[in-house]
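Pinned message: reference record for GTP-binding protein
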Amino acid sequence: MKVSIIGGATGSGKTTLILKLAKYLNSKGEKIGVIVQETGEVDYDEKTLTELGIKTREVNSVCIPCSLDTDIRSNLLTIQEEFNPDTVFIEAEETVLPHKLKADLERMELADVELLPSVVLVDSLDFETEEDQLTEYVRKQTSGAEIVCIGKIWLDTNEHSDAVSKLVRNLNPEAKIAFYPENDYESFPAELLE
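Predicted structure (tokens):
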């Protein structure tokens, strides 16, 4: 079972991206699971989930740092046992560091689980262009991600989106940077699935 942890600010496009990736993988015959920490502007409606054969589990933690790892581990094991999906997407809330969650899950040595690169979505329109203007969570998420996806660039000016790209590259020179030039997220980078 492959597990992909996708983080970013509320409204950055996590749910939309996960639904597009799930639809793509489902068309190839894969079973998909989703673990949701937060509900954003786009929700997982039952009709879409049923059509795609997606099983979801919701994580509600009162104390994120002290119980998140245990909750996600428990949900991963449950969804694996009940549904045995090929791929599970974890939609992390905006205050969670996907790379840290991935490292914590790696230490748990879960059987038959392959962790994909940690992903952080960045909304080009809302992302600051100066490092000192970023919140601590945004800075840590961006600098720790293995893949940073910059979205909504079609709504942004070239000057601002270029400045966002430059700041992301300065924060995390090792990350793969993917761009979403289309407003429907139809063309997602293949590295998210590898």
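Pinned by admin. Summary line: Strands lie at 2-8, 32-36, 54-58, 87-91, 114-115, 119-123, 147-151, 176-179.
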